[in-house]
Specification:
single chain, 16 helices, mainly alpha, 416 residues, 73% helix, four-stranded mixed sheet, binds zinc ion
């Protein structure tokens, strides 16, 4: 066994072991706190709702545990088990070389992985979400969504893959720089068309009706120094009773979207508070910062691939014959890098939680902090989000601060 094989196995073992350990802790922690509502929430959340949130979070985490084990096994089958090599041999029997072989290789692998993932996503939607009363989707809708997503990945993904493989083959030493430029341009393009072209394929977006709510929202938007290009209501209730609001797109495609499920549950002042929080993300430049982070990390990613692409040990260590196609280099890299970058996960989560605190602070300048607290408690309750996550699990994964910390911070702001 080569040094790199041992290194990869060790990293996979550590990452998988830590994921499982964190998930198990999470389940145990929630279970241990299942029978008492935390004091700060005792007035608003019943014991019954608290138990439902505990059971829902535990069910989701248990499915996640199964997925962690399964993903690790799949990765081993694809590499040491010779899976990737077999798929490449199959592709080569149709096209001996060139870009066509690479595209076919990626296509076969994508189809296989999507089929394997299907039971997980079916169980998530029709097992867990249905059991807890959140799912509103029918099987027909589920498969219609799947068909649309697949069609989109063919229409958008295939030309991108062709371009990337063409650049890898023809641009010499600095191919990774060209690929990076194309990939970043593609990501920006996707952000631009997501709200106006892609999202409407799945949901209906209606302009918000004139009335008190729209008036107050528009007032708030201009108080925060924004001009609203569009206020939309999305029929989220078609798929799920989970509620949300978001700010999407940029430039002329910028819009603010409210789920109908959110509007139906929150009072107007609470909706204003949630919106002020979202505007905070924009005003504090969180959106731009995340974009910049993505652009820089993509550059690092392709530069490293540029270094590894011509190293025999990289392929042979993962049981793939060298020399290999560019598509193999790309795929191997995509599959293997997350195993090594897993330990950066808490840093990313921490960065995100910092932004959430900042957006809350911003919201508290323009709307009463009490309104945001009321909105959050309602959202926690309606979405059955656990109020008692395992602290270490939270540090590792949570993009949002735990409910108790976040609300304690807002209560401080409400007093000042
Ligand atoms: Zn936020």
């Amino acid at each position: 066994m080569s040094t790199f094989s041992v290194l990869f196995l060790a990293a996979l073992l550590i990452a998988t072991g830590m994921r499982l350990w964190l998930a198990t802790r999470h389940v145990q922690h929630i279970w241990a706190h299942r029978d008492a509502v935390p004091a700060a929430f005792a007035d608003e959340i019943s014991l019954e709702a608290h138990r439902k949130a505990a059971d829902y979070s535990i069910a989701k985490t248990r499915l996640n545990i199964a997925a962690i084990v399964f993903d690790a096994a799949l990765l081993l089958v694809l590499t040491f088990g010779g899976g990737l090599q077999a798929i490449d041999n199959l592709a080569a029997s149709f096209f001996p070389g060139g870009i066509a072989r690479g595209v076919l290789f990626v296509a076969i692998l994508t189809v296989i992985m999507s089929v394997i993932e299907l039971p997980f996503s079916l169980y998530r939607t029709f097992g867990i979400e249905s059991r807890f009363g959140f799912n509103k989707m029918t099987l027909a809708m589920f498969f219609a969504d799947l068909a649309k997503t697949s069609a989109l990945s063919v229409v958008l993904g295939l030309p991108l893959l062709f371009t990337v493989l063409w650049l890898m083959a023809g641009m010499g030493e600095l191919w990774w720089l060209y690929v990076w430029i194309v990939v970043v341009a593609f990501m920006l393009f996707m952000q631009f068309i997501a709200p106006t072209v892609i999202a409407p394929l799945f949901n209906k977006f209606s302009p918000m009706q004139d009335g008190e709510m729209k008036q107050r929202i528009e007032n708030l938007i201009s108080r925060c120094g924004f001009t609203s290009k569009g206020l939309f209501v999305m029929d989220g209730s078609k798929r799920s009773s989970h509620g949300n609001a978001y700010f999407t797109g940029f430039g002329n495609s910028k819009r603010i979207v409210f789920f109908d499920t959110l509007l139906s549950r929150l009072e107007i002042p609470e909706i204003e508070a949630v919106l002020a929080h979202e505007l905070g993300h924009f005003r504090m430049r969180h959106v731009i910062k995340r974009l910049a982070l993505m652009v820089v990390s993509t550059l690092l990613f392709f530069w490293l691939l540029g270094v590894l692409k011509d190293q025999a040990w990289f392929y042979q260590g993962l049981n793939v014959a060298y020399p290999a196609t560019d598509a193999m280099a790309l795929t191997l890299f995509f599959l293997v890098v997350p195993v090594f970058t897993f330990l950066f996960q808490p840093l990313l989560a921490m960065y995100s939680r910092k932004h959430e605190f900042e957006a809350d602070e911003y919201a508290a300048q323009f709307t009463p902090a009490r309104d945001l607290i009321r909105a959050l408690v309602k959202l926690y309750k309606d979405n059955a989000s656990t109020l008692t996550p395992d602290p270490l699990h939270s540090v590792f994964y949570d993009s949002h601060p735990p409910a108790s910390t976040r609300i304690a911070r807002l209560e401080q702001l409400a007093r000042t």
